[in-house]
Design a protein that fits this description.
Blueprint lengths: L1 H33 L2 E2 L1 H25 L5 H28 L7 H10 L4 H10 L4 H8 L1 H15 L3 H24 L5 H5 L12 H15 L4 E2 L13 H13 L6 H18 L4 H31 L16
Parallel strand pairs: 1-2
Helix pairs in contact: 1-3, 1-8, 2-3, 3-7, 3-8, 6-12, 7-11, 8-11, 8-13, 11-12, 11-13
């Protein structure tokens, strides 16, 4: 069973590179077209790390062949792919922002209020109960920790195919998020409410402040030089924090002893999104919808791959390596 899963996962691993390469091509085209530049050291360091991980995976796979450990191969391979996705999509949100479509904060705020939700009341409640602000801030930061935890947890439990399907779903979710946010740009709740975040002394407003700074600079044309380590999240609708939380819960749910913990932590991350991320409630709903669509697309992708493998007229090529069952 492990051999069969590893064989399928290895094939999906290669297919995921095609999606990542397509994203990279779009970023390169956008950078050239819109006149962006990068601080070289900050761009090269994360790219070199991701490339080094991928190189290690392939060298190890070829060197060890059937003795290669699938846990090492797929944990490092998935981390490398997810790292590349993050490297590409961060700058891509900046490149697409120069389309300068009208800001939709007032429309998003109106939708929230039509649903009976008041972003200002939510922020004031958390601010007045300052014991909530610290846990919510830490929960909002789980998006990066989970990005490493998912590959490790799924490979250690030999859910190799599920890991590759997760990488595909995560990538698709980011693509959808960036595409929608290009045409529905927004800054965040405090901008829509026209209130200063300083009114909420217990809330950390640094993320919102950085987002406001960069969005306005992009729209004015004064920001065209990007430093990878200083990029902030500038996507409001749909919320990728909400989307990623759903994807993490889905990926880890079958892992005994971890699925429930992951669900609780990611639900807390969703709860933190309107406050710490200054997201509208409709942003959160949109992010959840994006995650659901991405999971459906990933499952369809897996079924398509299975049908293509079974109906191929030519014999399927042998995998480069097959993990040993004697581990």
């Amino acid at each position: 069973m492990v051999d069969t899963d590893a064989r399928t996962a290895w094939q999906l691993f290669h297919l995921n590179w095609l999606l990542i390469a397509a994203m990279g091509s779009v970023l390169l085209f956008g950078v050239i077209l819109c006149g962006f530049s990068f601080e070289p050291i900050a761009a090269l360091i994360p790219t070199a790390i991701a490339a080094a991980l991928a190189l290690i995976v392939y060298l190890y796979a070829f060197a060890k062949a059937d003795r290669a450990d699938p846990k090492l191969i797929f944990s490092l391979g998935a981390i490398s792919q997810l790292f590349f996705v993050a490297i590409i999509m961060g700058p891509l949100t900046y490149v697409t922002s120069v389309a300068n479509w009208p800001l939709q904060d007032q429309a998003l705020l109106a939708i929230d209020r039509a649903m009976g939700m008041d972003p200002e009341a939510i922020a004031r409640y958390v601010n007045d109960h300052d014991w909530l602000s610290g846990p919510l801030l830490r929960a909002y930061g789980l998006i990066k920790i989970m990005l490493l935890a998912v590959p490790l947890a799924l490979t250690l439990t030999l859910r190799l195919v599920r890991l590759q399907v997760f990488v595909f779903a995560f990538t698709i979710a980011l693509i959808i998020t960036v595409a929608i946010s290009t045409f529905v740009p927004a800054v965040g709740t405090w901008y829509g409410l026209d209130i200063a975040p300083s009114q909420f002394a217990s809330l950390d407003s640094s993320l919102y402040t950085a987002q406001l700074r960069d969005i306005l600079a992009l729209r004015e044309g004064s920001l065209r030089h990007l430093e990878m380590f200083k990029l902030s999240g500038i996507v409001s609708f749909p919320s990728f924090h909400a989307a990623s939380a759903v994807l993490y819960m889905w990926a880890l749910w079958p892992v005994r002893g971890l699925g429930g913990i992951a669900a609780a932590l990611n639900l807390l991350m969703i709860a933190a999104t309107p406050v710490i991320g200054a997201h509208y409630i409709i942003d959160v709903a949109g992010g959840i919808a994006v995650a659901a669509a991405s999971i459906w697309a990933a499952k369809f992708y897996l079924q398509w791959h299975g049908r293509a493998s079974r109906t191929s007229a030519a014999p399927a090529p042998s995998p480069v390596w097959q993990p040993s069952l004697a581990e």
